């Protein structure tokens, strides 16, 4: 895949951005932070310890990622602290995305929503799209609302494809199977701790829907991106934290959830 070096508007530094080419296969990858770094990832955070590798609250091994966002952490015009993985969501591919997450038991809920993972659309530069003129919402994302995670799809208008309860103070494993397409051939199937929570459709749990706004593909983001608080139209007033571990990308369920 060809690569452009693009300075994304409002971000702290330049980052590399794929240009659309037809899918030639999915590269399997895993990230468990055992080397103490975010190697292979990009950070979208304020300078400092907003994203850190820690040796407590781990799912497997010895290390995990601790992602923290404070009200003043404004990056790319949003209240966020995120990790990004590129070259993992090409048009036409079916990709499995796994991540373990842990929300601390005492984490405050003074927000309307808080995105914990998303497939973020890339512009189709060959059609004149740019980061300055862009789609308002990611085509696929997962938000935490108090007591639940919700799977959202936004192509053609936002819908909630699935919703399932989660427990604070407990590690959960989420797997998304995504057919990346800008038409009805796309679908998403979601599992939490091995149990599907998208609606059953025949013999599968695939929710058929477009999963891309265009054919340039997407990239994967994990962490925290917050909405407005329940009591105020401004930014959230509390500090929130999520822990991430055992992140995997593959072309089959067996690769990411053996």
Description of the molecule:
The protein is mainly beta. It has a single domain (3-9, 30-252), classed as Jelly Rolls (Sandwich), CATH 2.60.120. It has one helix and 19 strands. Strands 3, 5, 6, 9, 14, 15, 16, 17 and 19 form a nine-stranded antiparallel beta sheet that branches. It starts with a strand and ends with a helix. Mean pLDDT is 88; it is low at 1-22.
Proportion in helices: under 10%
Structural class: mainly beta
Distance between the termini: 29 Å
The shape is globular
- Supply the number of helical segments: 1
Assign the CATH class.
Answer: Mainly Beta
* Named CATH architecture: Sandwich
Instruction: Please tell me the total number of domains.
Output: 1
Q: What is the residue-mean pLDDT, rounded to a whole number?
A: 88
CATH topology descriptor: Jelly Rolls
Number of strands: 19
Q: How would you sum up the major sheet?
A: 9 strands, antiparallel
Strand and helix order: EEEEEEEEEEEEEEEEEEEH
Give the percentage of residues in beta strands: 35-45%
User: Based on the structure, what is the oligomeric state of the protein chains?
Assistant: single chain
Return residue spans where pLDDT drops below 50 for at least 5 consecutive residues.
Answer: 1-22
* Gyration radius over CA: 17 Å
């Amino acid at each position: 895949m060809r690569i452009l070096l693009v300075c994304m508007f409002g971000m702290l530094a330049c980052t590399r951005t794929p240009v659309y080419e037809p899918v030639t296969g999915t590269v399997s990858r895993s990230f468990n932070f055992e080397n103490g770094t975010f190697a292979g990832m990009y950070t979208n955070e304020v300078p400092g310890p907003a994203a850190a590798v820690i040796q407590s609250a781990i799912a497997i091994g010895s290390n995990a990622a601790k992602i923290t966002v404070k009200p003043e952490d404004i990056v790319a015009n949003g209240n966020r602290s995120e990790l990004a993985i590129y070259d993992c969501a090409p048009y036409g591919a079916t990709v499995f995305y796994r991540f373990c997450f842990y929300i601390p038991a005492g984490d405050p809920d003074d927000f309307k929503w808080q995105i914990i993972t998303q497939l973020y659309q890339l512009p189709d530069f060959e059609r004149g799209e740019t980061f300055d003129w862009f789609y308002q919402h990611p085509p696929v994302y997962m938000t935490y609302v108090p007591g639940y995670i919700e799977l959202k799809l936004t192509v053609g208008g936002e819908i909630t494809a699935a919703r399932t309860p989660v427990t604070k103070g407990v590690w959960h494993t989420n797997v998304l199977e995504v057919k990346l397409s800008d038409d009805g051939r796309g679908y998403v199937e979601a599992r939490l701790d091995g149990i599907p929570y998208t609606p059953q459709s025949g013999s599968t749990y695939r929710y058929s829907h477009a999963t891309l706004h265009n054919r340039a593909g997407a990239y994967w983001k994990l962490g925290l991106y917050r909405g407005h608080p329940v009591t105020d139209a401004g930014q959230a007033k509390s500090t929130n934290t999520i822990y991430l571990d055992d992140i995997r990308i593959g072309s089959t369920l067996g690769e990411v959830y053996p």
